[in-house]
Amino acid sequence: MSDPQLIGFRPNTVGAALRDGYSYYVTEFNIGYSILSFPSGRSLNNSEPKSIFTLPYPFHGTDNTVYNRTAYYNYDMDVISFNMRTEYTKVLRLNISKPLYNNSSSSRMDIQADEHGLWVMYRRNGEKYLTVSRIQPISLKVLSTWPLQAILPEYLCNAFIRCGLLYTVTCGVKHVTVSADYDFYEQMYVSSIPNEWSGKELSLITNLREKMGLQ
């Protein structure tokens, strides 16, 4: 795993930059109705959005995603999908508690996408451990769910899933530590040599589909 690279600066310290192909989609603050669309990293750095999308429901938190020009985001107890081409919207309700991580984010769930589709990480009401669901991106049907009782989000500041592996992130005063913890396809916990990166906070922007030649 390589060291993180700085993509660009934004004037607001709270928000999210979501990458889909070569485009970036930015949400400002941790609640709102708008997504700014930037066709490239250069336009993002120059703060020159190509378009602004108004969402049918407000987004909550900063751990949302865009996948094939569809925004998947958290609103209250729901996962919302909003197709930015057609404005078609679907809603999936989950039994979640808040907040998810031990950080300054107000995210109730962490929604991500990789080459296997859509993933949602959350805590169920009354439970302290992490639950992960894999969701069909078009229908929002829940395909599989994993209750991971050995992983407690209250001790994490972030997490992400790539290539069917769950990576957890813990934050120290001057560094963050990233380690692989669970293999969803082998259905087993894994141990790995942790990666330590300097910095107090970690924002993960990846584009696995581009690396794999997918559109």
From TrEMBL:
InterPro entries: Olfac-like_dom, Olfactomedin-like_domain. It is found in: Secreted. PROSITE patterns: OLF (PS51132). GO terms for biological process: signal transduction. Residues 1-215 form the Olfactomedin-like domain. The keyword Transcription regulation does not apply. It comes from the Eukaryota. One of its GO terms (cellular component) is extracellular space. SMART domains: OLF. Keywords: Secreted. This is Olfactomedin-like domain-containing protein.
